[in-house]
């Protein structure tokens, strides 16, 4: 049966695992209120998307 | 590979899926805009657009087809033929719009609005504050 010839070095293991690291989603600016907002989605702080009011956010 | 897989199954049996699609389109006809998951919105969209195509033909056969698709909901079919479909004249498809809303809290699934492109614009402005007001009361 095929078995590993060498012990996996810490660097080799960790380099491989690093590829699956969690990345925070990149944020852009809302064109209406300037708050950080995810792209291609309605702004969570003002409810604007592509230059028009899409939904009303409580407390605005 | 996803090649030639044209049906979005949504983890449901065919009967369950057909019922879901009909329910969603009936709600869309009634309310002009529905909030649902992005996956469901994408699955409902082709069905909704095909119903508009049926709704633009003013024949008895078209009405009976629409009734069969919409679980024999007469109110929805009447509204489809008399309110929703006539507004789309001049448009050659693309009758619906999906607006992404971000993830919901409970299961982090991506939510979206599905709406008619040619809906009366005040409906969107009026429908939203009610939902927001309900939300504010829940918070207190």
Task: Tell me about this structure.
The complex is a heterodimer of chains A (60) and B (140). In chain A, a hairpin with a 6-residue loop joins β1 and β2. With 60 residues, chain A is of the alpha+beta class. Chain A has a domain at 26-60. Chain A has one helix at residues 10-18, and strands spanning 27-29, 36-38, 48-49, 52-53. Chain A has a two-stranded antiparallel ribbon. A two-stranded antiparallel ribbon of chain A has the order 3-4. Chain B is α+β, with helices and mostly antiparallel strands. Chain B has a single domain, classed as Ribosomal protein L17 (50s Ribosomal Protein L17, Chain: A), CATH 3.90.1030. Chain B has a 3-stranded antiparallel sheet with strand order 1-3-2. Residues 122-140 of chain B have low confidence and may be disordered. Chain A binds chain B through residues 38, 40-42, 44, 47, 49, 53-59, and chain B through 99-102, 113, 124-125, 128-129, 131-133, 135-136, 139.
**What is Rg of chain B?**
16 Å
Give the overall average pLDDT of chain B: 87
Largest interface: A-B, 14 and 15 residues
Please tell me what the overall shape of chain B is: globular
Give helix % range of chain A.
10-25%
How much β-strand is present in the residues of chain B? 5-15%
Low-confidence stretches of chain A: none
Looking at the structure, the CATH topology of chain B is: 50s Ribosomal Protein L17, Chain: A
């Amino acid at each position: 049966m095929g078995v590993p010839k060498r012990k996996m070095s810490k660097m080799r293991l960790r380099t491989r695992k690093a590829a699956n690291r969690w990345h925070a989603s990149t944020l852009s600016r809302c064109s209406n209120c300037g708050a950080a907002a995810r792209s291609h989605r309605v702004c969570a702080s003002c409810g604007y998307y592509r230059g028009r009011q899409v939904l009303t956010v409580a407390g605005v | 590979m996803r090649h030639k897989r044209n049906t979005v199954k949504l983890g449901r049996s065919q009967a369950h899926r057909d019922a879901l699609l009909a329910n969603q389109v009936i709600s869309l006809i009634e309310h002009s805009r529905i909030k649902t998951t992005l996956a469901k919105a994408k699955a409902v969209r082709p069905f909704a657009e095909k119903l508009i195509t049926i709704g633009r033909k003013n024949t008895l056969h078209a009405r009976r087809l629409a009734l069969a698709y919409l679980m024999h909901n007469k109110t929805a079919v009447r509204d489809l033929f008399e309110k929703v479909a006539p507004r789309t004249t001049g448009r050659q498809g693309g009758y619906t719009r999906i607006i992404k809303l971000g993830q919901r809290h409970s299961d982090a699934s991506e939510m979206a609005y599905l709406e008619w492109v040619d809906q009366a614009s005040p409906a969107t402005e009026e429908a939203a504050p009610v939902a927001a007001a309900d939300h504010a009361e829940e918070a207190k």
